[in-house]
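Re: the pair you flagged

First of the two:
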Amino acid sequence: MYKAIIVDDEAVVRVGLKNTIDWAGHGFELTGDYANGRDAWEAIEQDKPDLVISDISMPFMDGLELAGLIGGSYPYIKVIILTGYDEFEYAQQALRLKVSDFVLKPITAREIRQLLDKVRAEMDEERQRREDLSRLQSQLKQSLPILRERFLERLVAVGLGTAEIGDRFAYFNLPPLSSGSVAIVADIDDFGDRELLSYEHDAEFLRFAAFDIFEEIAERVDALVFRTREERMVAILTGAGDENDLYDTAFRYAEEVRHHIEKFLSFTVTIGVGRIVSSPEMLPASYKGALSALDYRFLHGKNRVLSILDLEGQPEAAPMPSLSWDRKLVSTVKTGSIREAQDLIEHGIAALKQSRVPIETCFLQMQKVVLSLMNAIQEVVPHDREASIDSQMMLMEVYRFKTLGEIEDWLKQVVSAVMTEIADNRNHLTNTQIHRAIEYIETNYANHTMSLQDLCRHVHMSTSYFSLVFKQHTSETFVEYLTGVRIAKAKELLQSTSMKFYEIAEQVGYADPNYFSILFKKRAGMTPKDYRDRLAKESGI
């Protein structure tokens, strides 16, 4: 059963569509009807329906503007436009917004039923196409040659020189990368309700089904994709324009992949987005950033898009050791608990004891661990914040111990101090970004075009992660907080000036005075006029 909503400012149209159509009989659940695009957009952000049927001409936000927002944030939602305007320019604009259909009013109940059947057939066909494992098995045999995948894996994991990159790209007929590139890594969380009970090789078909979605969506943004030996899915997005635009494209791509895999395959993936690098030779730095973002799955849960910029800010690039124990320990230090880190130290020291390697080898191993921890601090703690841990002393202290047991106790203390430093910085970074966001809102509240995207660009955060931490810090969504600031400013103007209500509405960021009055009454419990009258009565004027 697919979810649908109706958006039309004419109540008779909404009532007619609700009562004359057997929605369930056509495969749809009608989850709501709305009189304007703005209310509908709030519902879409919360419920994410599969189909939106909308009029064009409506107050506050028209149908074409609503279709544009849907296409930008949720491209998988189908949109049908109903309109009484038989003009070519409206149809042209609807086509540019990639709406599913453009229908002229008046439309009969029979035509609506046929339209619903057509849309349902398209959705069923798409679902069937994605779930047809026999088709995917056939495509698996025709997938990209293994040499191409291994080359791309070496490109992001190890790094290659300019000459080899040029030769290999030409050999594999790959499009050249622009000056800016970013790596995206997707990892299957688990198979959810599709746990494998019969044949082990079915797991490969499910992985290939996920990669098929990953690859199909990548074609729309001209991304290079491949699978690693660890069965992760990697995409390289490139673009010579503004970095914010490239990040926006990366987040939209990752979110669409995450949504489609959950919807059509019934299991989930977590996706990490790295930092933008200026040349193909530097892709390993972006790839490592995407892998580090994936490590935060432990903190934030499965089925998410995680950006290394959101989680660790924008540090200077620093090389990371490649030893397995080093990496596991650093990953745990960043995202795990002190107990988990100490358990890992105990296992590592025990392995060294069992190996019976020379004492100098043990010291070198410990130095490499300490260097990894120092790099973790440099990545996460900005240079303008003084770290409480003396890195040079950390390196020198290794040699003052006489047993691995003493080194183990010391390393546990060092790790505890590092984890405290990283946690303090993470809180500082998030608090700083939220403080900047609040300052931006309170400075620009009068701009009626201000959006969540504008705010996130200003504080350099993705919209999904910003919404999460902003709600945690303020107990309100961006829209709720902005509305609160605007209404508070309006109250000040109502008390201290004799400005007309429409002038006050414009001063606090509302181009529509009627919408301002609705929001004011919703927040203050009375209309602007009643509020001013009450103030006058209380002051005895």
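Second of the two:
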Amino acid sequence: MIEKNYQPADIETRMSVVWEDSLAFKAGRPDRRDAVPFTIVIPPPNVTGSLHMGHALNNTLQDILCRFERMRGRDVLWQPGTDHAGIATQMVVERQLLERQQPGRREMGREKFLERVWQWKAESGDTIINQLKRLGASCDWSRERFTMDEGLSKAVVKVFVELHRDGLIYKDKRLVNWDTKLLTAISDLEVQQTEVKGHLWYLRYPIEGKTFDPEDRSTFIVVATTRPETMLGDTGVAVHPEDERYLKLIGKNVILPLVGRKIRIVADEYSDPEKGSGAVKVTPAHDFNDFEVGNRHGLRRIGVLDREGCLDLVDNEDYLRDLPEGASQFAEEFNKVDRFAARKRIVERLESFGFIERIEPYTHMVPHGDRSNSVIEPYLTDQWYVDAKTLARPAIAAVRSGETSFVPKNWEKTYFEWMENIQPWCISRQLWWGHQIPAWYGPDGKVFVAETEEEAISHALGYYVEQEVITAEQGREMALDRNKREGFITRDEDVLDTWFSSALWPFSTLGWPEDAPEVKRYYPTNVLVTGFDIIFFWVARMMMMGLHFMKEVPFSTIYIHALVRDEKGAKMSKSKGNVIDPLNLIDEYGADALRFTLAAMAAQGRDIKLATSRVEGYRNFATKLWNASRFAEMNHCAVPEGFEPAKAKETLNRWIAHESAHTTREVTEAIEAYRFNDAAGAIYRFVWNVYCDWYVELAKPVLLGPDGPAKDETRAMVAWARDEILKLLHPFMPFITEELWEVTAKRDGLLALAPWPLKRSEPTAEQLAMLAAAAGPTDPLVSPAFVMPIFDHADFTDPKAEAEIGWVIELVTQIRSVRAEMNIPPSTLTALVLAGASAETKERAPRWTDVIKRMARLSDISFADRAPDGAVQLLVRGEVAALPLKGVIDVAAERTRLDKEIAKADADIKRAESKLANEKFVANAAEEVVEEEREKREAARARKAKLLEALERLKQAS
């Protein structure tokens, strides 16, 4: 018995237990052993995370695909898990230690600190997994993985060692994004560009051989900088090779102010003659662009900051080399001064010597750490790198050849741009939480990379015996006695970038590098659903690692979803106070309503403007389905054994079977094409408009009428159509559909495992062979029962039934529209004249007269050769239906009202167009504000078009 009120919280709790107890989502179920696999790996959320709207969208779309394919008979593995999130997790635990006034990480020591992190993970690390379950994610939770599980850690070590052996991992001194608060390198993804109001200092650099005179421009070159403190590390000045102002100076030197070091003037196209003075200072150790300029011209790299962002000058051999006599005193004065304090003091010193030409206010983007919020420094340091350029070549080729394709396709351009300009990938992090780099250092700094310490010791002893650093006898003794080799080699303290381990996710989670049967069955995966912001950081790296180690692409399709923004189109952020918490929406409206909202708005390539009112609207949609199901139950609607909808005799029932088949094809094709919004739109229209508003309403007279074959058939068809709805809607709204299926369908088995409603034809031998080949040589021969369905798209249709019921619906709809336009009260009944009606219309109209009169508020329906004078004429499926409205409405008053409404619409259009024509407004206003004006204009245009149509109809009644 269906409860009177729809209560999502009760249903969601109950259904979650039902699915879990029945192992509904387990991959490799006995009944799917011979089925074609369908695999998706979840983008592993940070173990520290909690569900945000991006997660909600991403996982809803994945779940739609998984539930859809599971119902189509596939052996679905949706692989769940979490990422250890190096920096984020270490910060959480360190903050916890601070709050509890306990010893910090350094005081605690590495081993004890890592024990503490694992303890935190055991206590709090499942938060987001439980939240994903609340959303309805149908993952195989028995296979949940963590990037630092023993098996995944083994895969990470093996990959590092093999890439190092192949020369694809190496150590180098390069610039990295350095967080001076967290004291580690961070990835580009962890850097946020923040607009800052600062200054642009124009500095005079004296030309060697000339007496510096601030009044004589021939004695100096002017360069501009936003960071005067880094000038201490300048090793060159760059000018454009075609800039005539500086042609004679190229190759000469300038004297670095305050420091006295001679630095060379080089010609480089990086310098823009149109910007500033056309000359730029080059600081290769403190700027990524300058680093490249320095490489091109062989300029020295002089780092002048330490790990904490203070000037590092006194013991800095690179800085002190080639300094003129007396310059070291300056180094002592500024040594260990914080960079921002040093900036102020250096500017004062430059001004006192006349080296500053001018200072201008300057707003620019400054990189900040997304977690520490400290200003990020380009920092020259020794780090481990992956030769990403070499690994990228096969990954580029795989997308170009179509082995892997992006949806929408335009993201391929972004992928190619990133991959073709890829730089070495810095994979080391100065943290303790993470996969410690499997590299050990000998007494002379020689590096030994190995999978275990024992293996590293063996390599080291062999090497040092060969180099005669130790004797063969000493080597044997040290190999046998751990105490004798204590401290002989030391392990690299750094850990690997989190993206390194997550790059292996599609195959490490399946048991690789072991010869696990899951690897053969579920790799490669089918589709990856992810956001555009990690195409480079995660998607590209999975492509590189998958192709290198598995010799196959990790997925055939990459579906890139857009952002979820607030209702005005602004990006959600805590600082703006516009963040919408998905868990709050689930609490208030239910997970199904949130899921359907996100799916219905997930148009390819278009960001989602999420308004709470939309979620509330889809909660009402769920209530509508609930009430329709209750109505069916109260009217004893049930599907009898052996019922075949195609054999229905009643026109109305054949029509709903026709519409159901059409919607099923529409939904299926849309999901297959990743057009989630189209699929959701199709099922919404079918449920609300076709089934509830028309079919159930038109069926009521039969259901409430006398018993007989028509009533029996209609009861069966109402229930059958409801069950088809539950199947089609299940991937989108799994909780309510599973509940209604359990209560009303009265069949064995879960809806989650029920067959998808679109009928399939029996596959031919040729088709079976094709599918088996597509599944891969390692898969068992697929059986006809679980082969990917080959659909018969000439499924049930009845054009005659559609023509008749469609005519009734369009006629009633158009009459209602006119009544609304003309402000005709519901109590006022109007006549209808079917003018010049065809024989078919004359034959069908009497059957539906009572229904049409009741639903369209008519007093009479008659036939005539032509429409009477003063009647509003409607064209319904090529035939004229006339509403005589003389005396029913005040035509003059109605025309006045419509004219006023049209004038108002014109004013709204003009106002919006005026703003959009203003170049300053379009350039300076926030993106969401400009988009809002466009929407206002389009809405006003649509309103005007409708009003003009109403005005034309009104003229007919004059």
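Residues 774-794 have pLDDT under 50 and may be disordered.

-B.
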